[in-house]
Amino acid sequence: MCGITGAVWTDPNQRIDPDQLLRMTQQIAHRGPDDSQTWRDDHHIDARGQALGVGLGFRRLSIIDLAGARQPMACEDQSIHMVFNGEIYNYQTLRLRLEGAGHRFATNGDGESILHLFEDLGPDCFAQLNGMFAIALWDARQHRLVLARDRIGQKPLYYAVKDGRLVFGSELKCLAAVDGVCDELDLGSIDQYLTYQYVPHPNTIWKGVRKLPPGHYAVFQNGRLSVHPYWTYDPSTQADISRTDAIDRLRELLSDSVRMRMRSDVPFGSFLSGGIDSSLITAIAQQHSDQPLRTFSIGFPVADFDETHYADMVARHLGTRHEKFVVQPSGVDVLDKLVWHYDEPFGDSSAVPTWYLSELTKQHVTVALSGDGGDELFAGYERYHALHLSERLPRVFPVHRLPGFSLIQRLPDSGRRRSLIRRAKRFAEALGQSSPQRYMNWLQIFSFTMRAELYNDAFVQQLPADDPIEFLLAAWDRSEGRDLMTRASTSDVVTYLPCDLMTKVDIAAMAHGLEVRQPMLDYRLVEFAASVPIELKRRGSRGKVLLQDAFGSLIPEQIFSRKKMGFGVPIATWFRNELKPLVHDTLLADDARVSQFLRHDAVADLVAAHENHRQNHCYRLWNLLFLELWLRRWT
């Protein structure tokens, strides 16, 4: 687990000199505190006789082969150089095959298998990798730089092509260290951010800067960049499979995935929230361990946001060596840190507990397993069932036509995370819309109507014609012919999962030099789960029943029957108390940076409605405040 950066240039005036490459690399020192290396070639001549320059930078968090496997790494004849962030879980199998083909290995790490596989297959090699990764390979033989990102987007990779130069890095701050790269905001991305609470790939907050989409590779050759998919995720096909066979296949895949992700030469543990997913991953890992597994949970002194008693129950049941951290989270203290590390606007407030958990876990281990992905793969979110009900209810009983139905929107909301009134409002809004629009209702932070009221005229006139919902629609169309819950959950796999959850975990964990591995996101398991009929995943309003059928005996039954809590902090209360001065001093100030896009009176109305308990706007205010602080820090 590491951080990578670098550049390729043709114009000597665009060269990245050694000091600049070092600065780019130092920007991500937190991702790799154990080692730092750079490599440059200023004198390469391509097939057309044109001079090329290339530089690669690397920060290392040592996990496997601690003494060796330093990067940038080169093949035997020095014709290919590589920097790589992540883990390749099937590297030992690949190594045996490559050694059989005559390759000689100089290290015992996982990265060298990529290098030799690329020698044989070129970009076709990425489809052979099972892991989480962001890779950059300089191929002197073909005079090209090749970038690649893992299938699910667990590892980030940003790039920009300007004036015949490509610059890339694990975080945007690498690119921002180069003059002329991150210099103009992408206004369409601000619209997307206020819709989704993240900027969807391939866009970033900066015009001309891109994220490499998950499951894709890019080739920069002859001054041009081309992007290609290497993984075809096809959720449109449903398997004809019995419950018994599905259980057997799930047991095989998830057990193997956990086993593969337990290889480590440094202290190792598992997040244990007390929910279904982390409990099952921990239970399977404990089966593969000959000693008590180290487990970690975090709790807060607010009952609605604390589930450590469930984590304690699972830990006792499994016999793990458990650490429970109880903290008093502070939005004021952590916001500046989040704005620095999430170096484009990112509005998921669960980054706060993820930050604290990563910080405290790193004090004990360097690698932790996580249960991320279970809700998306096995239909765990309540919004999937709500979508199903919103399709059926109007046909059976047209409740949305009853007198007074619109009054639901006027009911006062509470700050409790699972407010019944808030959920009823969102459900009512969705009735009568198309399926993807209804689903968008549960995803979006600011609806189209709210954004129209919020934006000032000048900003609206500069926005592109593209509607942010097109990102969701493109994913929705991939599962044509499937039931609504499957369409929603498989869409999440290629949208919400990489853009929100994976970004949240990667940045929070790597800020503290912690590697997080997610067994649920093995691509074999993702493909299998997409093919499973919804009837095997849900019974009535309950999701994840296939996980219970396959592994229910491993953990207490109460974990499956308890209400889902998620992972959050009391931001509704924060905005009426500790965050209130910050909001008034920044978001509502005369010099507020968001005023170039948003109507000051509309923002003030949102703040007042929340502070006066007329409506709970906590998530919207968090997104606006994060945007304001980000603009102050990065522009």
Could you outline the blueprint of secondary structure elements for this entry?
Blueprint: E1 2-9, H1 18-26, E2 35-45, E3 51-60, E4 73-74, E5 80-88, H2 91-100, H3 111-121, E6 131-139, E7 144-149, E8 158-162, E9 165-169, H4 172-176, H5 187-196, E10 209-211, E11 216-221, E12 224-229, H6 243-260, E13 268-271, H7 276-287, E14 294-299, H8 308-318, E15 321-326, H9 331-341, H10 351-361, E16 367-369, H11 374-377, H12 382-396, H13 420-430, H14 435-443, H15 448-454, H16 457-462, H17 469-476, H18 484-494, H19 496-510, E17 515-517, H20 523-531, H21 534-537, H22 545-551, H23 558-561, H24 571-574, H25 580-587, H26 600-611, H27 618-634
Parallel strand pairs: 13-14, 13-16, 14-15, 16-17
Antiparallel strand pairs: 1-3, 1-9, 2-3, 4-5, 5-6, 6-7, 7-11, 8-9, 8-10, 11-12
Helix pairs in contact: 2-3, 6-20, 6-22, 9-27, 10-19, 12-14, 12-18, 13-14, 18-19
Would you write up a description of this structure?
- A hairpin with a 5-residue loop joins β4 and β5.
- The protein has 635 residues and is α+β, with helices and mostly antiparallel strands.
- The chain has three domains: 227 residues, Aminohydrolase, N-terminal nucleophile (Ntn) domain (Glutamine Phosphoribosylpyrophosphate, subunit 1, domain 1, 4-Layer Sandwich); 198 residues, HUPs (Rossmann fold, 3-Layer(aba) Sandwich); 65 residues, no CATH class.
- About 1% of the residues have low confidence.
- It has a six-stranded antiparallel sheet.
- It catalyses: L-aspartate + L-glutamine + ATP + H2O = L-asparagine + L-glutamate + AMP + diphosphate + H(+).
- GO terms for molecular function: asparagine synthase (glutamine-hydrolyzing) activity; ATP binding.
- It comes from Crateriforma conspicua.
